[in-house]
Structure formats: structure tokens, C-alpha cells
Amino acid sequence: MIILVMNAGSSSLKYQLYNMKDESVLAQGRVERIGMDSSIVTHEPTDKPEVRQVSEILDHNTAVRRVIDLLTHSEHGVLKSMDQIKAVGHRVVHGGESFQQSTLVTPEVKLEIRKLIDLAPLHNPPALMGILAVETNLPGVPQSVVFDTAFHQSMPQESYLYPIPMVLYRRHKIRRYGFHGTSHDYVSNKAAEVIGKPLEELKLVTCHIGNGASCTAILDGKSFDTSMGLTPLEGLMMGTRSGDLDPAIVPFTMNKEELTLSEVSSMLNKHSGLQAISGISSDMREITDAMKEGDKHAKLAFDMYTYRLRKYIGAYAAAMNGIDAIVFTAGVGENSSIVRQAVCEGITFLGVELDHARNDQRSKEARFISTDASRVKVLVVPTNEELLIARDTYRLVKA
Ligand SMILES: Nc1ncnc2c1ncn2[C@@H]1O[C@H](COP(=O)(O)OP(=O)(O)O)[C@@H](O)[C@H]1O
Ligand SMILES: CC(=O)OP(=O)(O)O
Ligand SMILES: [Mg+2]
């Protein structure tokens, strides 16, 4: 069975086409910098040369159409016809408490995802657009949705409740949900494999740092706590999101700047983080390039970003009363040796010892970047949310 997986992030659309007979990837690719000036499309058919296009892709709907064109393209494609695709699996960020597991798409499921847009304004809309674009372009093909929130449903109440009136949880389900669950799930299992111990015996902190970023404490093989909350705004400093701040800043700013709630919400989600502090970009590559050229604002943005990540690792080591390994993943975590170095060099007291040569090596394999003597292991594990989504989709469609 051939399954197409779509992972619509806030600024990217990644896709992989699987043959589930042997879980082989027929083609994969990504559309990056959606909605920014000059988007980059990279299409990698497994047995043909890579195609790279720079063009203007203003929204996720256009991105989906481009993917479908490339997969069936006479020269770069891998399919004779789109009829060969028997199912499509989507990553959906917010499943609230309505969805504890993956499910097939029905009109009710779409309605529920739409209702959750309030809680994930940057994320549920692109996923929904992807689902609708597939309905239009591949009519009748079953679709499934796999939620970022599902993996974190194991958190204990002391982690997921906020210290605010309980009636807000009872009435509106205001609580910590956590995100990037498919990724934290995948990389924690992979890290245990590389370390050579059962996951249940390890205390891990997984750092998924991409455009959105979150950190998870994994205890007994399950999510014990995670940095994102009711929405993907809480926790670490991100590309355009603030992460943690004093909640009093919201009414104070509304008052002083005469802003509406939606303006403040947009400020915190789209105009904060690396972008706001550097004044240059939300893209870590551009921040580190500018920093190397001596830009002070870029340096400050970088320092705040890595400082806040160090604080979370320390907090989670305390939350679990110990830590065996730290795992870096996603766009920044997999590619930025300078970010990993800045984080690890500030937490040597925990027993972290970075191996600089290993850290600087570029590789697509899961690997150690700590020294052999390091008490706390540090790993880079390329995430593979798509494989987990393909497996769930296959299971649901076969049932
Ligand atoms: N070589 C690199 N060095 C530093 N950062 C990188 C590198 N490659 C990608 N990134 C960063 O990864 C981020 C995107 O991560 P990704 O996980 O793909 O995002 P998304 O949240 O859209 O899924 C961007 O901020 C980008 O700057
Ligand atoms: C939940 C979230 O922040 O996702 P992304 O990293 O794809 O923006
Ligand atoms: Mg992502």
C-alpha cells in the first residue's frame, strides 16, 4: 500500500511517500519558508536526482498542489498516476482532550479540528488546508490524522494542571497539552536504541528545536512534563514565539499600547522570539551568520535562546530527580552545532561533557555527541514524525 504523509508546520510542509510493504520511502521533500519572500522547494525522489526550486509559495494550499505536481511529474515524479496513493496521513498539532489517538478523517473530525483552531492558530489551519486540498485533488482517498498532543496524554496532573481556579479546567479544559508528541515519542525510542538500554529505564530530556520548539521530560518511557502548554506558545523561546513570560505582560501591554487581545496574541505568536530580539530573522541560520559578523542583536537573541533551553534542561533534571541523556532534534537541534555547544557548555555541572569533533560532524544518523566518559549522554537524533504517521495511517486504513 502506498501512503502519502503530510506534515504541515507553521512555516513548512514536509512530505514523504511510503511503500508500506517494506516501509521504504519512494520520495520525500519539503517546502520551506512558506509565506516568506522566496520559498524553497526540495523534492527528493529516492532513485532520481534531487530537484530544488526557489519560488513564491504564499500558503499551504499552493504548497500541497506543488507536491502533487512533483510526485506525478513526467521527469521528477515517482508515480504514474495519483490513483496509486491509497491513503494520506496528516500531522495535526492540537487534538485537545477530544483526540487521545490517531483517527480517520470524517466531517465530525474536521469540525473538531476547526474548533481547536483557537488553541493552535498557527498550526491547525495549515493542517486543515492540507486535508481539504487532498480532498479536492485526490477525491475518495481515505485520510487520517495523527495528533502532536496524543503522546503527552500520559502526563500526571501535577504536570498538566495550571495553578488557577479548577473550574477553568472543568468548564474549558484549560490545561497543559504539550506538542511535537510524535517527534518526542520517535526520538526517545531511537535514543534508547542507540544507548542500548530499555527506554523505561532512562531519564531523558528531548529537545525538539525547530521553528517551534519544545522540551520534554521522559520518565518510565512516557511523557512526564513538557514545555508547551494549552497552546504551542508556552515554554522555550522560538523563531517568532515568545515562550514563557509573566502573564501580567498581556494586560499591561494592552493598556499601555492600546492593543486588542488579538493584536497582543499576534505579537506573541508571530512577532516575538528570535525575530523580535535580533530584528533580523526567525531563522537560526541567519541569526548565527549575523552573530559571526559581529551583530550584537543577533548575539543577544542567540544567548537568550540557549540560556532558556539550559534552564529547562536543568528544571527537568530536577523534576525527574536525575537525567541520563539529552536528545537534540528538529531543524535547529539536528543542524546547529553552535546552539548545541552553547547549551551543553552551560550545564557541565550535571555531568555533561561534549565531544567537539562529534558535535561538528554532519550526519543524518542518530549519534552521540558527548564524550565516551560523559556521565550524561548527549545525542542528536534526526526526527521522523512521518514514519510514525505512516504506520498509524496504515493501521487505521487496514482495520
Ligand atoms: N544548518 C542550520 N543551522 C541552524 N539552524 C537551522 C539549520 N537548518 C535549519 N535550521 C533551522 O531550523 C528551523 C526550522 O526547523 P523545522 O524543524 O524544519 O521547522 P518547523 O517547525 O517548520 O517544522 C529554522 O529556524 C531554521 O533556521
Ligand atoms: C507545535 C509546533 O510548534 O509545531 P512547529 O514546530 O511545526 O511549528
Ligand atoms: Mg516541526
TrEMBL record:
The gene is ackA. Its EC number is 2.7.2.1. The keyword Aminoacyl-tRNA synthetase does not apply. Pfam families: Acetate_kinase. Keywords: ATP-binding, Cytoplasm, Kinase, Magnesium, Metal-binding, Nucleotide-binding, Transferase. It comes from the Bacteria. It catalyses: acetate + ATP = acetyl phosphate + ADP. This is Acetate kinase.
